[in-house]
Amino acid sequence: MERIAITRQIKIFDTTLRDGEQAPGCSMNTPEKLEVAKQLERLGVDIIEAGFPASSPGDLESVKNIAGIIQNSAVAGLCRSLEKDIDAGWQALSKAVSPRIHIFLATSPIHMQYKLKMTPEQVLEQAVSAVTYAKKYCSDVEFSAEDAFRSDPEFVCRVFAAVIAAGATTVNAPDTVGYAMPEEFGAFIRYLKEHTSGIEKAALSTHVHNDLGLSVASSLAAIAAGADQIECTINGIGERAGNASLEEIVMALRVRKDYWNADTRIDTTQIYPASRLVTQVTGVKVQPNKAIVGENAFAHEAGIHQHGVLANRETYEIMTPESIGLQKNQMVLGKHSGKHALEDRLKQLGITAAAHDIERIFTEFKLLADKKKTVHDRDIEALARGITVSVPETWTLIHWAIDSSSALGATGTIQLRYKDGSLYKDVALAAGPIDAVFTVIDKIIGKDIELESFEIGAITEGEDALGETSVKIKHGERIWHGHGISVDIVESAIKAYISAINAMEWDISYNPHRAEGALTEGAAPSEL
Q1: Which residues are CB-contacts of 186 (< 8 A; sequence separation ≥ 6)?
Q2: Domain segments of the chain: what residues?
Q3: Which of 484, 417, 472 has the alpha carbon at shortest distance from 445?
Q4: What would the CATH number be for the domain defined by 8-282?
Q5: Phi, psi dihedral angles at 79 (to 5 degrees)
Q6: Strand positions, DSSP E, 291-361
Q7: 204 or 470, which is more confident?
Q8: What residues does 478 pair with on adjacent strands?
Q9: For the chain, which terminus, N or C, has the lower number of CB atoms within 10 Å?
């Protein structure tokens, strides 16, 4: 593959909170988005795409909240090439230290004909008009030609030249459906670089989807061809098969800097904490053999591999676990440890928490330490995440009991406290213990809840391992995710279910448009 042999820094544009969150089952509430945004800032991404402000009042508010706290990364909001979208985008971004308005418009024949119902000249005119309008608000404007790879390259060059002349500082050429082969995509980017008038005045970006499993390869081919910015997500989450994986691109550049002569400003030791956080807030786990962050990425089972690694890690490891922030599971704290020791360990794990959260984490930690023989980093991490990214508790678990047998089924008893202090208790019969307690909770809260998914696993090894449960519930047209941990798997399931219900109640109370799945008239999330 032909490469541009110069040392340069590639910008990382992270769209976990926008494109990633659009993926089915990956929605996040505002507190979760804020926590992810803060971790992305610690990771060192150049641009955080915080959402699509015009899609709903809730999304606008979450983008505004993120824009208000991020200091060291640019914050972007996605907008269609419409004045009302751009107005909403600026309303959300105006308080950001480094705001970016990100405008998109499709340029492929199939999109122009069937989705936009516009001629190429109309698309060109609207793209220029939108960028010109956005420049009155913001100096940093990105324009994306949706489905660029399936577009006429000459037309994309015309559009890019025109929007750059209108003030666009970044132009993005997505492979929206992941159709390109890497060499093809590299050639396409090279063509744009060589034939777009004024390209030296703007950064050239790519955004590749993973429909054929080639998004990272195509993104790297784009870098080789001269791309300045890569758009990607943590764990590769996103529409359909997902996006290019941030961790894979960053580590490919870092490990093979000798080959690429390019790097990013990413603090790679924050990669694993970022991956774990996104997994926990979305409930979407990465496959065990996922590159860089999968559970097996640094595991060696074959005897010859184990022997080699014991002799010299470099025999089978081209990077160290520590380089991505992965700590070996070990007992670092116990029931006799103090709060300062716990707080110090949280900082080492890349977890920041307010003083009142530290108090809650310490209380829960002491309870856990009394139940477990050993407390591992993963236990502490899961415990802290359950507190620091949670929404206000509408319902709190007070007591639960199960009477279960193979002959008679299960009887579940639950007592919950409502946010006003009222206590509610009920009983239900069901075929199994989980079904019984979930049925009781539904009776108490008085809502018709549909369980979409239920996953349970052990955080660490051993008989006293902490159980981690993730659930997704559906009420109306929306899906919410909940997360629970406990040494008792039934209790972890109850906590996860109540966590999802609290997320639902919070959305209904404070974010009704989002809870109803409402979009601004005519708006539709785009995958670029």
Answers
A1: 1, 2, 218, 221, 222, 224, 225
A2: 8-282, 296-326, 328-528
A3: 417
A4: 3.20.20.70
A5: -140, 140
A6: 331-333
A7: 204
A8: 475
A9: N
